[in-house]
């Protein structure tokens, strides 16, 4: 079976020996992953953190090799890739800190209680989160470092104690191989397990791994079509497994009247910067901007200088983008607000289209749908109440943004309440591009933003995706994990009889 696992359907390529040879090697790769997992998950937390830092150090030291490869394969700028690699290694080190602290283990101890008021004695119960098993990660194309080989999915799975098998993205195969080599050398030099992170390069091998019994969870960043197909495979296995897919988002922005009148120029500037950054190839790009009819924001956008043409990630993404843009421009209820002569060229310049809220309410599935690339749709409205109507009909989103001033607060209340039902992150007076890697972050949302709305793929709680709870009842200390033993010998945070201990 061949499944499109890329952002826009780019073809995949096999490894050095070809797709057939790689497919034949999948069983051996998975056996090696299981062996690595057994060793990795048994390491003390301090040792696991030490090896994560060794991976981060190795990537930083290899920047002079990796960044030029990434620039050549993706067309992204050196500055963008340098910042992305910094984000990637920061993320790995942040997870190392989380591992050391041990809070992610969710330790809970309930001592035996003969007088437990439920009507029967309570036994001694001790709960811990343990790694599920080897994890299969499908890399993204638009972030060749931060959502690829050692991106958030891989980093969080490793932090959880899982070995990882990576399905590399076809848009940057040379970079993927080079990054895998850096990780292997870094782990080996630090005395870590062999085969902790292994790569696959063909679609066939990736799908075969997804169906294999050794794989206990999977993560994906890419298109709705590809992600849904893989999700269905993961759920139809004899042993279904969790599949954490980030699939698509339009990230609507709602500009309220007072802000539109007072800050038109700054709103337009921030909007265009968010739309055109990385040529609009970001999952958090604001794809729809709602503004009051006749708002000065419209004139400010229309009068902006073009940023000029720039290459997209690969030819298939570019072709799909241009087809989608042309189909929107051909609609009678859509007009062009901002573009230049190269907006439909190869490579394209950014553009912004314009429509009305009546058109959106009549055909939301077409107009409020993700366009992966450097364009967005500005929607004019006359009644603030219509914004809540639009929000009520939204599919799941990674982000939703409200731009307002003090006088807009009352009108914003019902809108924010509605957006909370549809988005993983709700913003006020900030742009959704730029996802901070931190403790309280949520990069997720209801379907089709993700296949698992209770999870996040960015931030420290991403580690929870690859853990499952186990409770030990009435076991002697010698048979318990050290973190659950009496006296708390590791000094880790635990909840004891319902009370949080330091």
Structure description:
This protein has 502 residues and is an alpha/beta fold. The chain folds into two domains: 245 residues, Aldehyde Dehydrogenase, Chain A, domain 1 (3-Layer(aba) Sandwich); 176 residues, Aldehyde Dehydrogenase, Chain A, domain 2, CATH 3.40.309.10. Helices cover 39% and strands 16% of the residues. It contains 16 helices and 17 strands. The protein has a seven-stranded mixed beta sheet with strand order 10-11-12-9-8-13-14, sandwiched between helices. α2 crosses α6, α3 crosses α4 and α4 runs parallel beside α5. The longest helix has 24 residues. The protein is globular and about 75 Å long. The termini are far apart. 49% of the residues are buried.
CATH architecture of the largest domain: 3-Layer(aba) Sandwich
Taken together, the total number of domains comes to 2
Helical stretch tally: 16
**What's the CATH topology label of the largest domain?**
Aldehyde Dehydrogenase, Chain A, domain 1
Beta strand %: 15-25%
Main sheet makeup: 7 strands, mixed
Instruction: Assign an overall shape.
Output: globular
Average pLDDT metric? 95
The radius of gyration over CA amounts to 24 Å
Instruction: Indicate the low-confidence ranges by residue numbers.
Output: 1-16
Would you state the CATH class of the largest domain? Alpha Beta
Backbone structural class = alpha/beta
Biased composition (Low complexity): 1-11
Region (Disordered): 1-20
Keywords: Oxidoreductase
InterPro entries: Ald_DH/histidinol_DH (IPR016161), Ald_DH_C (IPR016163), Ald_DH_N (IPR016162), Aldehyde_DH_dom (IPR015590), Aldehyde_DH_Superfamily (IPR050740), ALDH_KGSADH (IPR044151)
């Amino acid at each position: 079976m061949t499944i499109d696992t890329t952002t826009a359907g780019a073809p995949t390529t096999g490894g050095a020996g070809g797709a057939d040879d790689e497919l034949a090697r999948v069983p051996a790769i998975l056996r090696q992953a299981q062996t690595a997992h057994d060793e990795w998950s048994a390491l003390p937390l301090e040792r696991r953190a030490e090896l994560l830092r060794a991976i981060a150090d190795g990537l930083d030291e290899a920047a002079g090799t990796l960044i030029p490869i990434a620039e050549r394969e993706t067309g992204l700028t050196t500055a963008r890739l340098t910042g992305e690699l910094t984000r990637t290694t920061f993320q790995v080190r942040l997870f190392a800190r989380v591992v050391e602290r041990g809070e992610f283990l969710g330790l809970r101890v309930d001592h035996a209680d003969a007088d437990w008021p439920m009507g029967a004695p309570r036994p001694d119960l001790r709960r811990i989160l343990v790694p599920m098993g080897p994890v299969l990660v499908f890399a993204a194309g638009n972030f060749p470092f931060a959502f690829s080989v050692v991106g958030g999915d891989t980093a969080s799975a490793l932090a959880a104690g899982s070995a990882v098998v990576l399905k590399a993205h076809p848009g940057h195969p040379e970079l993927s191989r080079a990054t895998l080599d850096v990780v292997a050398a870094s782990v080996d030099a630090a005395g870590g397990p062999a085969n902790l992170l292994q790569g696959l390069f063909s679609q066939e091998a990736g799908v075969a791994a997804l169906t294999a019994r050794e794989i206990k969870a999977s993560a994906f960043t890419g298109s709705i079509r590809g992600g849904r197909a893989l999700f269905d495979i993961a759920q139809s296995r004899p042993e279904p497994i969790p599949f954490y897919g980030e699939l698509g988002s339009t990230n609507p922005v709602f500009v309220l009247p007072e802000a539109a009148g007072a800050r038109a120029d700054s709103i337009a500037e921030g909007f265009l910067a968010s739309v055109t950054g990385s040529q609009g190839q970001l999952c958090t790009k604001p794809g729809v901007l709602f503004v009051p009819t006749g708002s000065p924001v419209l004139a400010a956008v229309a009068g902006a200088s073009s940023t000029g043409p720039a290459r997209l990630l690969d030819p298939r993404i570019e072709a799909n983008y241009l087809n989608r843009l042309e189909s929107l421009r051909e609609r009678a209820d859509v007009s062009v607000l901002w573009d230049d002569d190269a907006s439909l060229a190869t490579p394209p310049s950014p553009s912004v289209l314009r429509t009305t809220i009546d058109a959106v309410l009549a055909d939301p599935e077409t107009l409020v749908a993700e366009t992966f690339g450097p364009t967005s749709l500005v929607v004019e409205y006359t009644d603030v109440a219509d914004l809540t109507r639009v929000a009520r009909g939204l599919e799941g989103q990674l982000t939703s943004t409200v731009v307002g001033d003090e006088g807009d607060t009352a009108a914003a209340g019902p809108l924010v309440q509605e957006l909370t039902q549809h988005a993983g992150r709700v913003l006020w007076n900030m742009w959704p591009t730029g996802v901070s890697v931190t403790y309280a972050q949520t990069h997720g949302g209801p379907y089709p933003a993700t296949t698992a709305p209770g999870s996040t793929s960015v931030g420290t709680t991403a580690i929870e995706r690859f853990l499952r709870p186990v409770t030990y009842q009435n076991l002697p200390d010698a048979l318990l994990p050290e973190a659950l033993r009496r006296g708390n010998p590791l000094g880790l945070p635990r909840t004891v009889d319902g009370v949080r201990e330091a």
